[in-house]
Design goal:
The protein has five helices and no strands. By secondary structure, it is mainly α. The mean pLDDT is 87. Belongs to the TAF13 family.
């Protein structure tokens, strides 16, 4: 059993954060409804590694110690698929904000 506070212990503590989401995504992309635990674990490790690396890179290029959307966009600018997806998500986020604001104004007045 890993010691509390050790790197291995921290990895185990952060583990299982995306377990449910990874399992659902695997199913959505054609895997079995209950994929092998080992497959989910490997994919989750890759997701955590990717997020950690992107976060560290973003923290080093923008304002120190702070990650901003622009930093992430800058990092993925040369990957057309990721860049297009981020653009779509940011556009959708803005549309949702406008829709919520309009809904709130209609229901609660401004």
């Amino acid at each position: 059993m890993p010691a509390a506070g050790s790197a291995e212990g921290m990895k185990e503590a952060s583990r299982r954060v995306f377990l449910s989401a990874v399992r659902c995504m695997m199913y959505g992309f054609g895997d079995d409804q209950n994929p092998y635990t080992e497959s989910v674990d490997i994919l989750e490790d890759l997701v955590i590694e990717f997020i950690t690396e992107m976060t560290h890179k973003a923290m080093s290029i923008g304002r120190q110690g702070r990650v901003q959307v622009e930093d992430i966009v800058f990092l993925i600018r040369k990957d057309p698929r990721k860049f297009a997806r981020v653009k779509d998500l940011l556009t959708m986020n803005e549309e949702l904000k406008r829709a919520r604001k309009a809904f709130d104004e209609a229901n609660y007045g401004s």
